[in-house]
Amino acid sequence: MRAGWIAIALLASGCLFRNAPGPRFFRPESATLAAAIEAPSAAADGVPLRLRPVQGTPLLRERIVWRASSVEYGLYEQRRWSDLPASYVKRALENALRATPGIRLTDAPGVATLRVEVVAFDEVLAPARVATVSLAVKLIDTGQFRIIDRTFSAEAPIANQTPAATATAMGRALDDAVAAVAAAVRDKLQAR
Predict the structure, then answer these.
(1) Which CATH superfamily is domain 23-191 in?
(2) Closest by alpha carbon to 178, among 37, 25, 24?
(3) Smallest Cα–Cα separation from 51: which of 109, 101, 100, 102?
(4) Would you call 80 helix, strand, or coil by DSSP?
(5) Can you give the residue ranges of every domain in the chain?
(6) What is the model's pLDDT at position 142?
(7) CB-based contact 47:114 (threshold 8 Å)
């Protein structure tokens, strides 16, 4: 009986006095996020576009997501983004769209609207270690017709096992994904 109480006490003390390392915070190393892009003067003549708030799937919060296959996901305990992935995507997309000739971002109603949902912001572990960003994009014109309804994805190889390498690769994937979205939006709006 006494041995049982000692075992319980030892287990409880392990829970109370554990010395797990604290969380570490990371930011994607993105050129598009870092750019301080001002709207060019020619943008006043561009096609107006309204960017709605970027949404993120419930799994994509502050903890960094790893993926081992298309059906197995997990979250790192100590690795965190310093902001939500949807916030990174929104800022990068705003910068990319402002830098795109022929597009003028506006908050005015009654113009073409861009809706984006972040569906992947993952560190893929196999078969190769890559950072993946996938964005479900809907571009809706003033008549409520969908001009674009597709997912844009980008991957960047992760150089090594460190979390900093993941953040660097995630930034490159983010840059590629938002550049593809901005180019597709420009092409579709100018064609109309």
Answers:
(1) ABC-type transport auxiliary lipoprotein component (3.40.50.10610)
(2) 37
(3) 109
(4) strand
(5) 23-191
(6) 83
(7) no
pTM: 0.85
CA distances from 24 to 77, 81, 167 (A): 9, 8, 12
Answer yes or no: are the C-beta atoms of 80 and 99 closer than 8 Å.
no
Instruction: Take residue 192 and report the two structure tokens written for it.
Output: 């109309």
Q: Phi and psi for 72 in degrees, rounded to 5?
A: -120, 115
Q: Tens of pLDDT along 89-137? A: 999 999 999 999 999 999 998 999 999 999 999 999 999 999 999 999 9
Tell me whether strands 24-26 and 103-105 are parallel, antiparallel or unpaired. Answer: unpaired
Asked whether 40 and 101 are in contact (CB, 8 A), the reply is yes
Looking at residues 36-64, what average pLDDT do you find? 80
What band does 3 get if pLDDT is binned at 50, 70 and 90?
low
Bridge partners for 164 per DSSP: none
